[in-house]
Design a protein that fits this description.
Layout lengths: L1 H10 L4 H16 L5 H11 L6 H13 L3 H13 L5 H17 L2 H18 L4 H12 L9 H10 L3 H7 L1 H22 L9 H27 L4 H19 L4 H15 L5 H19 L5 H34 L2 H12 L3 H16 L4 H19 L3 H15 L7 H10 L3 H8 L3 H13 L1 H12 L1
């Protein structure tokens, strides 16, 4: 009965969070087994969680970076690095999304922030609107895969999985997905006879390479100083940051400091300097330092607007989590999750068959629900089956998030689809057709990461073993 009420409310156009809480309340009132106050109690306890404190701070950090002029610096860095390839701006689009993913944590922020600059630039260089929209949509899926990631935080809290391990699990898959997208861009460039979009400049390219090496070498040097020489972690990091800011001032780097965001987060969590929640606060402080003190691209009026946007987004996300808490509890209490688990396990006990079925289900659900709502509904249903089949929950978390990101590109509820249709001034139908060819590298990535869990789990196991 609970499922029927929920589906009736959803088909009636009721928002998913209201449908989950409403279905639970109606079921309790009809059966009379529990007092109605249980709904409120479970919703409050559902958001009374320390890991969830990371949600507003990651949202705030992403909004600060998105409004601090960082996108232009990322675009210039990517242009210097790969803009001289054939189909250059397509490659710039992918590389820019990889960098921006390390700051925003959401696909929609990537599409709306960096996508606005990239689509305009590609159209100005003669690319079709459809190609510009397609590559931007595909690369936007990297936002929640490469850390930090808001969906990983929600999944980690719901499934009782280490957020730090999830963040590490997204790094290698994110790189693999980016390379497959660049191969797809190269295919279109070869097919259409496209050349490069900017002249190759040794000085610009060398500067971009040096910036990349600085970002790569910085955490290595910190690790050597702390682990091999026994220096104090806090003092070492503070000194290294001072040196980094001095180098940025002298050499006028484009994007070293913004790119350092995920490096600081992952490094701080793996070395024990801070928890993921404290890391989210550190990301906000870092964004404020860059926006106000270093680049001076933010002011108090902009900060007020950013904070109001953050409050609005956070309220939406946490209301969904609260509603999902009572709904998930009711699904368990009424035996729905146990019945689904029994049915699946009676059908198959082969992990690869279950993963195929789960992928199909999550791709379908992702077309109708936004990721936070989908995660909160699917985790109580699918996680018990994963535990019985011995499927690693970190691996499954990445699969779930990737499925739901692909769902953002589809009608009828794909938010990235609608954002890019508005940015590119295309109809939803034309935008949908533009995205279709880019589903091939995404689905191929999904298949590879589903059935080669070593690619997902290698880095977490190296750090947490």
């Amino acid at each position: 009965m609970l499922k029927v009420i929920f589906l009736l409310l959803m088909t009636g156009g009721v928002p998913v969070a209201v449908a989950m809480a409403g279905a639970s309340l109606i079921y309790i009132l009809i059966t009379g087994d529990l007092p109605p106050f249980v709904v409120v109690h479970r919703m409050v306890s559902g958001v009374d969680s320390f890991p969830l404190l990371a949600v507003p701070f990651f949202i705030l950090a992403g909004n600060l970076m998105n409004n601090a002029g960082i996108t232009n610096r990322i675009y210039a860095f990517a242009l210097a690095l790969v803009g001289w390839f054939r189909g250059g701006l397509g490659h710039v689009n992918v590389v820019g999304s990889v960098v921006f993913a390390g700051m925003s944590g959401t696909a929609i922020a990537d599409a709306a922030g960096l996508g606005t600059i990239e689509i305009k630039a590609m159209k100005d260089h003669g690319y079709s609107s459809e190609f510009a929209v397609g590559v931007t949509a595909a690369s936007a899926t990297l936002g929640p895969i490469i850390p930090p990631s808001l969906p990983f935080v929600i999944y980690g809290m719901m499934a009782n999985v280490s957020v730090g391990a999830l963040f590490l699990a997204g790094i290698l898959p994110g790189i693999i997905m980016a390379l497959l997208m660049m191969v797809t861009v190269a295919y279109f460039a070869h097919k259409n006879g496209w050349g490069s979009d900017v002249r190759f400049s040794k000085s610009r390219f060398a500067k971009a390479i040096i910036e990349s090496l600085v970002v790569a070498a910085w955490p290595t040097c910190i690790w050597v100083l702390i682990t091999k020489l026994g220096t104090q972690p806090q003092l070492t990091v503070a000194t290294a940051l001072i040196v980094l800011f001095a180098a940025d001032k002298i050499f006028r780097f484009q994007a070293v400091l913004p790119i350092m965001t995920p490096v600081l987060l992952i490094g701080g969590m793996t070395t024990g300097l801070f928890t993921p929640t404290e890391g989210a606060i550190a990301a906000c402080v870092w964004a404020l330092v860059l926006g106000f003190a270093w680049y001076r691209s933010l002011n108090l009026r902009a900060l007020l607007k950013i904070c109001l946007d953050t409050v609005e987004t956070t309220a939406t996300v946490l209301f969904i989590v609260a509603a999902a808490s009572i709904f998930g509890w009711m699904l368990t209490a009424t035996g729905v999750t146990a019945a689904i688990s029994a049915w699946v396990l009676a059908f198959t006990r082969e992990p690869w068959v279950f993963l195929l079925m789960a992928n199909l289900l999550m791709l379908f659900v992702g077309c109708f629900l936004e990721p936070t709502a989908a995660i909160t509904i699917l985790v109580p249903i699918l996680i018990p089956i994963c535990q019985q089949l011995g499927i690693d929950l970190v691996h499954f978390g990445l699969i779930m998030v990737l499925n739901l990101m692909i769902g953002l590109l589809h009608p009828p509820m794909g938010m990235v689809l609608f954002v890019l249709a508005r940015v590119a001034q295309l109809s939803v139908e034309r935008t949908t057709m533009a995205i279709l060819p880019w589903l091939l590298p995404l689905l191929f990535s999904l298949a590879v990461l589903t059935y080669l869990p070593q690619l997902v789990l290698w880095l977490p196991r190296q750090v947490y073993s």
